């Protein structure tokens, strides 16, 4: 076993998210462009007798207590797949808001898989890690890729996509939304969907934020905004402040405003206390 290993766990935003249908297994088939951004947690693993997760930082208190942290579940799944009862201390320094639609817990779990695969010398290849990841959470296969991906199925089908660097203003909220709820609300409400992904993928590949802004969409947004109108208000406020487009990320509640460039993003961000400016890809 080697010494400590440190991996950055990048948050993600959904440039678009289309919910296609409810599946018999309780999940939903979707199509989404998942984009890792510069905002990240840091996951450090080191050898130990037992398996233990320690969450640090000012946001640590937002992580649900009870020990069944997603990173721990990922570590247990990897230990099982490697036919070993292996130990490690996993330290997570949290900077990504929790239960915010930014994939923070999934990013930590994905980084844990990558780090422990090396620390424990499991030697698993990307496909095998993605299979384990998909059992831990639907966002993991996408986040294990480490770059922009087009996601299909319930999240397990991933295809690398090209995206030029884009600048975002993230407006988080002080309440969480949980994905089972957001998808249930979509089941209850139904609702429309956004434009063809091809125009979005084309604009994203060219880094054409002006074209991309009005095309951003998320099918979960309308059902979630119906229960949390402040999300819709933040969206309108971002556009009013000059964002080229604004959309909820994942199952929310964080709202993303797309900016022309870094300077523009920082100027918009100044009007939203607690907002975060990030680029994606990082
Ligand atoms: O896979 P994960 O544990 O992140 O999913 C949490 C919940 O979100 C699922 O139990 C399901 O209710 C919902 N979900 C879904 N369809 C997806 C992903 C998540 O319905 N593709």
Question: What do you see in this structure?
Answer:
The protein is built from ten helices and eleven strands. The protein has 282 residues and is α+β, with helices and mostly antiparallel strands. It folds into two domains: 5-160, Ribosomal Protein S5, domain 2, CATH 3.30.230; 166-280, Alpha-Beta Plaits. The strands form two sheets. Strands 1, 2, 3, 4, 5, 6 and 8 form a seven-stranded mixed β-sheet that branches. A four-stranded antiparallel β-sheet has the order 9-10-7-11. A hairpin with a 4-residue loop joins β5 and β6. α1 packs parallel to α2, α1 (70-81) packs across α3 and α8 (221-227) packs across α9. It starts with a strand and ends with a strand. Bound molecules: cytidine-5'-monophosphate. Cytidine-5'-monophosphate binds at residues 26-28, 30, 137-139, 154-155, 179-180, 183.
What are the SSEs and their pairings?
Layout (H helix, E strand, L loop, with lengths): L4 E18 L5 E19 L4 E6 L13 H12 L6 E6 L10 H16 L6 H11 L3 H6 L3 E4 L4 E4 L5 E6 L7 H11 L7 H10 L2 H4 L4 E2 L2 H7 L1 H12 L4 E4 L6 E5 L2 H8 L6 E5 L2
Parallel strand pairs: 1-8, 3-4
Antiparallel strand pairs: 1-2, 2-4, 2-5, 5-6, 7-10, 7-11, 9-10
Bound molecules: cytidine-5'-monophosphate.
């Amino acid at each position: 076993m080697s010494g400590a290993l440190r991996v950055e766990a990048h948050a993600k935003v959904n440039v678009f998210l289309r919910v296609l249908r409810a599946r018999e297994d309780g999940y939903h088939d979707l199509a989404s462009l998942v984009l890792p951004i510069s905002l990240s947690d840091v996951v450090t693993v080191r050898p130990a007798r037992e398996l233990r997760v320690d969450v640090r930082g000012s946001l640590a208190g937002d992580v649900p207590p009870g020990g069944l942290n997603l990173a721990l579940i990922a570590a247990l799944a990897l230990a099982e797949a490697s036919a070993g009862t292996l130990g490690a201390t996993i330290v997570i320094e949290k900077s990504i808001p929790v239960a915010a639609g930014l994939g923070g817990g999934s990013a930590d779990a994905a980084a844990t898989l990558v780090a422990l695969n090396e620390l424990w010398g499991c030697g698993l290849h990307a496909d095998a890690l993605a299979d384990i990841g998909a059992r831990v959470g639907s966002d993991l296969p996408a986040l294990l890729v480490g770059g922009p991906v087009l996601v299909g199925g319930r999240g397990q089908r991933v295809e690398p996509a090209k995206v030029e660097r884009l600048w975002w203003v993230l407006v988080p909220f002080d309440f969480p939304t949980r994905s089972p709820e957001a998808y249930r609300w979509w089941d209850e409400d139904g609702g429309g969907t956004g434009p063809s992904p091809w125009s979005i993928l084309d604009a994203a590949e060219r880094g054409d934020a002006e074209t991309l802004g009005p095309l951003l969409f998320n099918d979960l947004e309308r059902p979630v905004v119906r229960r949390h109108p402040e999300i819709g208000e933040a969206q309108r406020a971002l556009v009013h402040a000059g964002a080229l487009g604004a959309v909820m990320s994942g199952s929310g509640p964080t709202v993303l405003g797309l900016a022309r460039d870094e300077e523009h993003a920082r100027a918009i961000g100044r009007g939203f206390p607690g907002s975060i400016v990030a680029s994606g890809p990082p």
